[in-house]
Specification:
The protein has 91 residues and is an alpha+beta fold. Helix content is 36%, strand content 31%. Strands 1-5-4-3-2 form a 5-stranded mixed beta sheet.
């Protein structure tokens, strides 16, 4: 089973959400941890090795390296802010 690490940005983002949304996102992250090859996961074009997964109205941006799942960004699906954060990070 993969270890999970959150970036400071992702930890800040998730702390802002209501408890129900936090549980929903946590459940999705644990699903990713147990099954890396889910059908709703896709690579981000131009941002290898990043992938995105959807949890309700939220998008989780992550990558897997060695035996660790790194969660870097979490944000609204229909809001381009999460992608702006990714571009600003230089990744």
């Amino acid at each position: 089973m993969l270890q999970i690490e959150f970036s400071k940005s992702a930890a800040k983002d998730i702390a802002k959400f209501p408890a129900k949304i936090q549980r929903q996102i946590a459940l999705k992250i644990h699903e990713l941890r147990e099954n890396k090859m889910q059908t709703d996961v896709a690579f981000l074009k131009g941002h290898a090795p990043y992938k995105r997964a959807t949890s309700g109205e939220y998008r989780i941006i992550f990558y897997i390296k060695n035996e660790t799942l790194f969660v870097d960004f979490i944000g609204k699906r229909n809001d381009s802010d999460i992608y702006k954060k990714l571009k600003r990070s230089g990744l």
